[in-house]
Amino acid sequence: MSKTDRAPISTPIPWLSAALLLAFVAFSVHARLRSEQLERDGMVALDAARAYYLEHPYLQPGPALTARVGAGIVQRARSDYEQQLRAGSIPTPPGVVRRQQSELDQQVAAAIASVSALPAQRVAFAPGTSPPHTWLAYCLLHVGNAALIGNGLLVLFFGVYLERSFGRGAYAGLLVWLTLAGAAGWVASAPADAVHGLVGSTPLLAGLAAAFATRFFDRREEGFYLAGLLASILWLALPPWASAGWSFAPLELVATQPPPAPTAVYLPCLSAVVAAAIGCTLAWLTGIDGEAAASESPAGARDPRLRRALRAREAGRPREALELLGKYLADEPDSYEAAVAAWEVARELGRDSEITASQLRVIRIELRRGLAAAAMDHWLDLVRGGIPEHTEASLLIHIALLLREHDHKPEAVRALRFALEHSEERENHVIAMRIARAARGLDPGTSETAAWRALGSVELSLKDRQALESLIGELLATPDARAAWLASASGGAWRARASGGDASAAAARRPAAIAPPAAAPDPAPIAASTRPAAIEIERNDRVLDAVLAVPLELKDDGVEIQTSQGQKKLVRYERIEAVSVAAVHGMAPKPVIVIDLVLNWMTPKNETLRVIRMRGDQFDPRRLRPGQSSAIEALRAFVKTVIDRSEAIALPDVERALGRPFASFEELVIYQRVVLLVEGPAQPTVRSAHGRSA
To answer: Higher pLDDT residue, 292 or 417?
Structure first.
């Protein structure tokens, strides 16, 4: 009967339930202290009357004194007195008996008078004898610590949900209604001459449990529903069944009748359950929904600007409403209700850019308020069409950590990669360091790339630098796991891609000598005696001719280089057919970025492959591309400029050629075999790396 598809609302304080719990505690503690004193004084007076009676056994003790003395002792004392009379004792004169009887009655009356001051006499409900206010007041008194603590906690638990569900006014009416229903149940089951009254909140608690079960039935799959319902059922059913008689309090100083059975409270509880069902039905029929009222902004009731915007929306003027909401949010950026309303109005108008901005605002507010589930749902809905271009990196990292925690790992990786590659703050070393740590154990490539980017900053502290170097060392220590990750991430297609396209496009741009063979026509039937033809095994016998050089300058018509012999040459852009970039281990203590300008990539394989080879540890790319934030960014800019101006093929593909991230190989010979296709086949150990040596 309750709505659960509305926007999340932060959990409010159940003020009514808290006030009721405080009343339980205050009255029960006061009653216990007061009762102890009154019972002690009453017992002293009653014991004096007992002693007086035993001295004069011919008097009439009355029910209260008989209960205190004991019926057996009274009978025995009277028998002894009658035996003395038969033995010849002089009987007490009637006048003396009357005077002594009056004195005994006064002593008993004085003892019983203290009973009227007992707290149970004021609040316990006994049909026919208790004052009218006890129909409601009986729930205040709890005669045991266990009943007070257990009932109080469950009343508070149900109040958290029901006070929000019904609204404060309707919930107050429900409490009164259930309390009266419990008293009515005791009227139907109490004995006519009851000397024990109904006390405690057990019937009220039974009614609240029934209302909770009814009101939140559509959320039965959530953990709080089953836990609350099961705990309340066990608490209500088991203690009375186990003889816990804390639901009844004696109304006499000395009980003249036995107390009711502990299970007698079941009928008042059943009466409260029926009343709860009736109350929930009436609330449903009349449309009482406290959550819907709470979802309407309290600020909206106070701020006329928001009220005008909401009225404009209700009147069918969404453009005006969106404009007013935008002005309001400019002054109150943390207003969740206004942000949700702006998002919904933008969706009604179909304004994509404003929908995205409004939804991002809603997600930010939800994250600040701790509404993790709502933030994740809205984020997953938002990124179905792609992550917005201008999403700030801090939000991406925050939502990625949240997604990772809730087992949305692919989306977490996607958010972190976007933050690393597209965020406007991606060059910030603090952001890069946060991405590296967030991706640790989740996406090794992203973690390593972000770590290298952060290490490129001169502003990085020594402690952070050492931590990032340890992180990179940890990633590089498991090459097999890294190779498996890279293979699964790229699907093995990186070997086939020549310029960031698909495998078929790459195959079309390979040299003719290594292009896949065309499909042969169906062969003619072969005679049984014909020997099968020999299978020709293709091998990479191409020879590499690499000239070591360092780049000196990027000119308009080519790259000026200086060879290892000191000669300066200009490599014109039109001569460059491919640009290959990779991180290679084993050439220096740290991985070295190798940049190969391939001059005859498109020639047959029987020709020598001529390459101008440049090592990233032998030149400073910032001299070639000044104005970049770091050496690695300058290297990326240098490679991109050469590829763009020469229109060359990027190897192994565009992304890895630009270091997002760099492909990494254990040995130079493996890199040459796999990427340049020279000196025969080999299976590399591929890892993603970021060229710090540049």
So the answer is: 417
Residue ranges of the alpha helices (H) in 216-265?
A: 223-241
Q: How many whole angstroms separate alpha carbon 163 and alpha carbon 182?
A: 20
Q: Which residues pair with 559 in a beta bridge?
A: 554, 571
Percent pLDDT > 90 in the chain is: 20
Same domain, 328 and 422: no
Same structural domain, 172 and 188? yes
CATH of the domain at 393: 1.25.40
Instruction: Please spell the DSSP secondary structure of 166-184, one letter per residue.
Output: H-HHHHHHHHHHHHHHHHH
pLDDT of residue 290: 59
| Whether residues 140 and 259 fall in one domain | yes
661 closest CA partner among 432, 500, 386, 452: 452
Measure the N-to-C terminal CA separation of the chain; round to a whole number of Å.
65
Choosing from 261, 295, 329, the residue where a domain stops is 295
- pLDDT, one tens digit per residue, over 675-693 is 888 864 333 333 334 433 3
Query: Which of these, 346, 650, 390, lies nearest to 494 by C-alpha position?
Result: 650
Q: What pLDDT shows up at residue 571?
A: 92
Cβ(132)–Cβ(123) below 8 Å = no
Q: What are the pLDDT digits (tens) for 560-598?
A: 999 888 888 999 998 898 999 999 988 888 889 999 999
Classified as helix, coil or strand, 312 is helix
Q: CA torsion 264→267→270→274, rounded to 10°?
A: -160
The mean of the pLDDT values for the chain is 78
- Count of the separate structural domains present in the chain: 4
Name the domain boundary from 432, 450, 477.
477
Are residue 252 and residue 194 in the same domain, yes or no?
yes
- For every residue of 510-579, DSSP letters joined together read S-GGGSPPPPPPPPPPPPTTPPPPPPPPP---PPEEEEEEEEEEE-SSEEEEEETTS-EEEEEGGG--EE
Domain coverage including residue 362:
297-371
507 belongs to a structural domain: no
User: At 52, phi and psi to the nearest 5?
Assistant: -65, -40
User: What average pLDDT score do residues 25-37 get?
Assistant: 84
Are residues 559 and 551 in contact, defined by beta-carbon separation less than 8 angstroms?
Answer: yes
